[in-house]
């Protein structure tokens, strides 16, 4: 897939920030200067800057420009609907996915509630995300097997959304999310490199298709010292 110009500009600036070529607590060049530097339109530059903002690399300050933020923690966007494979493309770190569990079974009373199902089968997919040699995320996905048929462990190792949209031709549209802090279970402590930590930040997501069909419930648990959760919101009043 061809990378658009604004994504290339985003990646170029992001890499310079991560490499320390653009230090934290300094300002990026103005939009006009960036237009000249990258031979790009103002709209393209603004799209690239919005991506940097959404992913926690900059903060826009009125009258001053784009302030570069400290990037010691990995920025994890909570707005939008993005697969981990897509998110990985915005990250500078080395990332590996381990499929810990892949099973299909009749829907349980709990999943009837979470997925709004009366009957049928559910896929349970547990994946460990290893970033720069440290296992720091457990993603547990439950998917309605009637809505998402034919799922395999290979799809889980690659990208669920790539299979859902590319192979099944369905359109993933929107998600409702909730963030809570939960104690790590003994199993989770064994699966992740927890060190002295005993709490995890859990992002619960209910994800829907374009026709508003709920097809996925996810619990994504993160080691708290490795991530900052970023959002992009615009006041409309």
UniProtKB/TrEMBL annotation:
Gene3D superfamilies: Chorismate lyase-like (3.40.1410.10), Winged helix-like DNA-binding domain superfamily/Winged helix DNA-binding domain (1.10.10.10). NCBIfam families: trehalos_R_Bsub (TIGR02404). Residues 3-71 form the HTH gntR-type domain. InterPro entries: Bact_HTH_transcr_reg, Chorismate_lyase_/UTRA_dom_sf, TreR, Tscrpt_reg_HTH_GntR, UTRA, WH-like_DNA-bd_sf, WH_DNA-bd_sf. This is Trehalose operon repressor. GO terms for biological process: negative regulation of DNA-templated transcription. Keywords: DNA-binding, Repressor, Transcription, Transcription regulation. The keyword DNA repair does not apply. The keyword Repressor applies. It comes from the Bacteria. GO terms for molecular function: DNA binding; DNA-binding transcription factor activity. The lineage of its organism: Bacteria, Bacillati, Bacillota, Clostridia, Lachnospirales.
